[in-house]
Structure prediction request, 239 residues.
Amino acid sequence: MRFITTAAPLARTSIRRARLATASLLSATIILLFSAGAAQAHHGFYDFDTDRLYYIAGTVSQVRWGEPHSYFTVTVEDGLPADTPERDLPDGLRDAADSDPINAAPSYSGSHDELSVTIAPPSFTSMWGLDRKLNDGERIEAVGYVGKSHEDEFRPVVFWVEDGQPVNQVLNEELPATPLPVPYPQGDAPSADTDQDPPSASAQSEEASPTAVWATAGALLVAVIAGGAFYLRARSRRT
Prediction:
C-alpha cells in the first residue's frame, strides 16, 4: 500500500514535467516558425523581377509608415515618358554602373493602374534622403522592380519626392565604395569605360534566398526537438 501512495505523486510529477516540456517545445516551434517567416518577409528584392528596372510616376495614397518596411499605393500616371527622365541620383547610385541602368529604365507599361510599393523603413529613409512620412496625394517618381508572383507590387531602388529629392533604397548598412548591384535592363550595357563590379557582401546578404532562411530555422527546430526528447528521456529514467 505504501508503494502505491508513493508512486502516484511521482507519476503525477512526471506527467506535469512532460506536459511542461511539451508546451515548451510547442512554444519554441511557434517562435522559430514566426521568426523564419518574418526574416523571409524582411528580405529586400528576392520576390521581385530584378532582370529589369522600370520607371513609374504617380500619386501616393494609403501610406503605412513604419518597421520593418513602409508601404503605400501609387496611382500610375498616364502618358509616362519612354524612359527615366533626367533626375538627380543619391551619392551611392551615381557611378555609371548604377546610373546607366537607372537612366535607361523604360516606363512601366503593365496592366495595373495602381501599384503597391514597398520601401525601406524610416530608420533607413531618414538617413538616405527622406526624414518624414509621405503624404496622401503627394506625387513621386521611382525606378525599381515589379513583383514576380504579384505583378501589382513594386520595389524601388531609388525614388524622388515632389521637390526632386532622391531617396536611396538599396539597403546596405552603409553606402559601399564600389558600384551597387543594380542589374542592367535587357539589351543595355554598361558604359564603355566602366566594368560592373560584383555585388558587395552586404548586398548579397540583403538578397539572401528564403530557402536558406527556412533551412536555418529548420535546423534550429530539429535541435530544439532533439534536446527536448533527450530531456524527457533522462527524466523518465530518473523517475
